[in-house]
Amino acid sequence: MAVFQKYDKNHGPELVCNKENSPHDNVGADGCHKKGHEQNKNWSRPIGRIWTLVLLLGTCLLYCTRVAMPICAVSMAKQFSWTKTESGMVLGSFFWGYCFTQVLGGYVSDRVGGEKVLVLAAAAWGSMTIFTPVLAYLWSQPILSMTLARFLMGLLQGVHYPSLASLCSQKVVASERGFLMSTVGSGSYLGTLVIGGAGSLMLDIYGWESVFYVSGLFSVMWAYFLWKYLLKGERPIITLESLGRSGSRSKLSRRHWLQLFKQPAVCAVIVTHLCTASTFFTLLSWLPTFFKESFPEAKGWVFNVIPWLVAIPSSLFSGCLSDHLISQGFDTASVRKLMQFFSMGVSSIFTILLCGKITFHWAVAFVSATMGFTTFSHSGVSVNVQDLAPSCAGALFGVMNTCGAFSGVLMVYFSGYLIEATGSWASVFAQVTVVNLIGLCTFLAFAEARRIDIDCVKVSHNNIHI
């Protein structure tokens, strides 16, 4: 059999089979059969839309349970006599746990399927949310139990986004990934809005315990619905045998991982995601303080709600735009770079405008524009990892998110130092702009959209024999 490479502008090399009498007939036939089998595993458009809505709701509930503690922190600190340092320890423990399960969650998702990891994790962090008030009253030292509970929440929720990346790479064609990831990503903003409104209302009427009970219960119900109706009640969901077999999913060796990380395109997505996450965490953490100190008479609900209301349709629009451009024949890599240019380049223009003397209304407008354009990364670097390495997208996204979480925590702390040292918010916004531009230049210079994971390594070995 003769095997040669055929290139198209979006996907790089493909195997083209020409049947001849050759000692490599079996290899080529298996390769072509495998490719056809993988195409058949993609969701149909109606099924994909159902999954998109379900995953959107799941991400919304993820953030409802994640933000429940920050909303209730003031009431809990008053009841349990926590200091500011102790409250910060409880809130910060989530992110340390969040860093440790990113790669593991992606690796397991690549092996057994992201949907299985999602449903198990959701049942676990939903249950943990329900039992959080119980743990607070059960232990004699609530500060210790709540710190442990938040750390475990971080561990359990750390697998969510890597699992989404793995699931999307396995089930969604490249021309529709932008819409799915941007839509599901908008669930984070929706969840922040929902828990901010409904959670504050429950906090005032029923007490802080109700926020945990209700958000946790809905999360467990979502996990049950996903298992019962979309996974068809499959049991057991994950077995040791499923973790051990390779099947059609990649089983990467250390050598192949090293080869993967030597690729400029892989390094580019890691650096760019690190910069994106760092700036987002910084803005998310410090913008409320910026508004309170700069505009003390302003109403909190305005600057806490309006930017997120803008972010939701912006995220949806970016997904539709990127998929439309790809379906019209535009180069996939160019579309990813365009989306990232809006996310890090255009948003930086509005961020730097915050450095000057502006009124409250202009500040809200600039922050809303910044957060709106930032969401375009859901159709840029966040999807690009699935273009590059669909066979290990979950694990690779876990690496990206781990780096982003660590750098985000460090940049948030450093921003606080800048505010104290300079006494000016302009230093923070300038820092955000510089980090954004570093990530953008890296992505524009080195980003690609062709497959460079282990499957292409295998193809390159097969192509030696003609």
From TrEMBL:
One GO location term (cellular component): chromaffin granule membrane
GO biological process: ATP export; purine-containing compound transmembrane transport
Transmembrane residue ranges: 50-69, 89-108, 117-139, 151-167, 179-199, 205-227, 265-286, 306-326, 338-354, 393-419, 425-446
Compartment list: Cytoplasmic vesicle, Secretory vesicle, Chromaffin granule membrane; Lysosome membrane
InterPro entries to which the protein is assigned, alphabetical: MFS (IPR011701), MFS_dom (IPR020846), MFS_Na/Anion_cotransporter (IPR050382), MFS_trans_sf (IPR036259), SLC17A9-like (IPR044777), Sugar_transporter_CS (IPR005829)
Residue ranges constituting the Major facilitator superfamily (MFS) profile domain according to the UniProt record: 51-451
Pfam families linked to this entry: MFS_1 (PF07690)
Alphabetically ordered keywords of this record: Cytoplasmic vesicle, Lysosome, Membrane, Transmembrane, Transmembrane helix, Transport
Catalytic activity: GTP(in) = GTP(out); ATP(in) = ATP(out); ADP(in) = ADP(out)
Membrane-topology annotation of the record: Multi-pass membrane protein
Record has Transport as a keyword: yes
Protein origin, superkingdom: Eukaryota
Example GO molecular function: purine nucleotide uniporter activity
Similarity field: Belongs to the major facilitator superfamily. Sodium/anion cotransporter family.
Function text: Voltage-gated ATP nucleotide uniporter that can also transport the purine nucleotides ADP and GTP. Uses the membrane potential as the driving force to control ATP accumulation in lysosomes and secretory vesicles. By controlling ATP storage in lysosomes, regulates ATP-dependent proteins of these organelles. Also indirectly regulates the exocytosis of ATP through its import into lysosomes in astrocytes and secretory vesicles such as adrenal chromaffin granules, mucin granules and synaptic vesicles.
Protein name (record): Voltage-gated purine nucleotide uniporter SLC17A9
UniProt lineage: Eukaryota, Metazoa, Chordata, Craniata, Vertebrata
